[in-house]
Amino acid sequence: MKRFLVLTCALLSSSAFAQGPLSEPEREALIDKLKALREAAVSNVNTKFSAATAAFKTGMASNSAALDLYLKCVEKVNYEEKNRSSQDFREWKRRNRQIEDPAFAMALRHQLNWFSLTLRAAAHPGDIDKLAPEASKMIESLLITAEEVDSKSARDELRKPVTNTIFAQAYGLGGLKVEGWPMTPLPVSEVYEKVILPPLRTPKTTEALRAGWINRIKCEDLTMMRWSGDGDRAQNDPLSPQYAKFLAETKPQLIWEMEVDVFKAGDQRGAALRMLEHLENNITHHKATEWERTFRELVDPPEKKVAADATPNGEPS
Length: 317
Prior knowledge:
Blueprint lengths: L1 H12 L10 H36 L3 H18 L5 H10 L6 H22 L8 H13 L7 H7 L7 H5 L17 H9 L9 H22 L13 H25 L2 H14 L6 H12 L2 H7 L9
Helix pairs in contact: 1-2, 2-3, 2-5, 3-5, 5-6, 5-7, 6-9, 9-10, 10-11, 11-12, 12-13
Organism: Haloferula chungangensis
Keywords: Signal
Protein name: Secreted protein
């Protein structure tokens, strides 16, 4: 270590360093410095992850615990770090009606849950598929408690990427990026498409894949029914224009995509029969013609026709 420090100092202070070739000891010192910087960066990230994970676990215990953590983070980021007085913070709390909303506190709890999963995905990016069952449970939990998060402030918070939250600011995680992982649990379609369904697209798991799709469609249906209106409670108008359009156009399209996905994963016989039934029941859908074309390409692909039209010697008949 002493040799490393001496060489590094010599390199930084030497005018010859910028003009001549590197000696072997100098190369080794630079490589050692690079390794030390990388190790320090990894250690710093691990420290942040550990502190955040512990705090988030405490916050997920109850609605009140989630709100307490939220307030501590607000005070730290917006007041302590900006040298603003505790009196200013108390005044902010007094004026902020959002923190009195039980739905907002429940949304914070769900947000912390998703942030915790996101940290695990970031720590082990090669094993994101292993988080699929927990992601599915989290979405189901969110929608089971949909009535408890049925306010605009709650929904807005849940739609916010976790890296844009006050929790991320307080724990230095605003720059966190995880390829292939949604940074918010809403919309649920992205969670299913990126996390839950991909591991199920195998010939041995076509039943589980279809079950996953059915859950996805139920979740999207419930989300649209409860949260698609302009007011705080779309549930009061279950056939809002947005929800009516979802039922008439989007839901049949999702069902079709489900069967195509299952067909490609391996259950060709069962999926083909269900696709025909779906076409029969939705023949007036604006995408029915497109569905028919897709069905023909799946059941009787062009390359199969070319092979059938060729002679045994490979020459066209």
